[in-house]
Design goal:
The chain is 17% helix and 34% strand. With 164 residues, it is of the alpha+beta class. A four-stranded antiparallel β-sheet has the order 1-2-3-4, with no helix packed on it. A hairpin with a 3-residue loop joins strand 2 and strand 3.
Length: 164
């Protein structure tokens, strides 16, 4: 859905000088992957409320077809493996987005796993970062996919049963 609103701004003196504020919002949901064990949806959004730029969002959610449950971090990876997992994700992001320059990734903030849980794809686990989560706006939304053959040892037993 897309909405554009042209809302007149009130001036302190109550006069209307013709200024207005533009607001735009768009959202969509798309089925990305479907197997007999899971379905992954992509949720995209864009909002502009003024300023230098709008804000885009991209989130993927995987649902266990057996239970109907949305797979969250603890459903996929136990907290005890997060340090190893972070190293794998960091290596993939540095290789893909930072030309192997590991130090440039920590310029703005320390590296961590994405706030949103990863999702399942036919070939691996997909991780995506939101705008500003690990770098500036211009860096976009870095993402990577780690093959099941590499990441399966870190997955919970129940998550491991979902992989193709």
């Amino acid at each position: 859905s897309i909405r554009n609103l042209d809302i007149p701004e009130d001036n302190i003196d109550g006069s209307d000088d013709g200024l207005s504020m533009i607001y735009m919002e768009s959202n969509s949901v798309k089925m990305m992957y479907l197997t007999d064990k899971f379905v992954t949806f992509g949720l995209s959004g864009y909002t502009y409320t003024g300023g230098a730029h709008g804000m885009s969002t991209q989130v993927y959610k995987t649902i266990d077809a057996r239970t109907g449950k949305v797979m969250e971090w603890n459903d996929i990876f136990a907290p005890s493996v997060r340090t190893k997992l972070k190293a794998l994700v960091r290596k993939a992001i540095v290789k893909q987005y930072y030309d192997g320059d590991d130090a440039s990734l920590d310029v703005l903030m320390p590296f961590d796993l994405p706030a949103n849980a990863p999702s399942f794809t036919p070939k691996g686990i997909h991780f995506i970062y939101s705008l500003y989560e690990i770098d500036c706006y211009a860096a976009g939304m870095p993402e990577c996919e780690i093959p099941y053959s590499v990441i399966k040892p870190l997955m919970t037993e129940s998550a491991g049963t979902l992989i193709p």
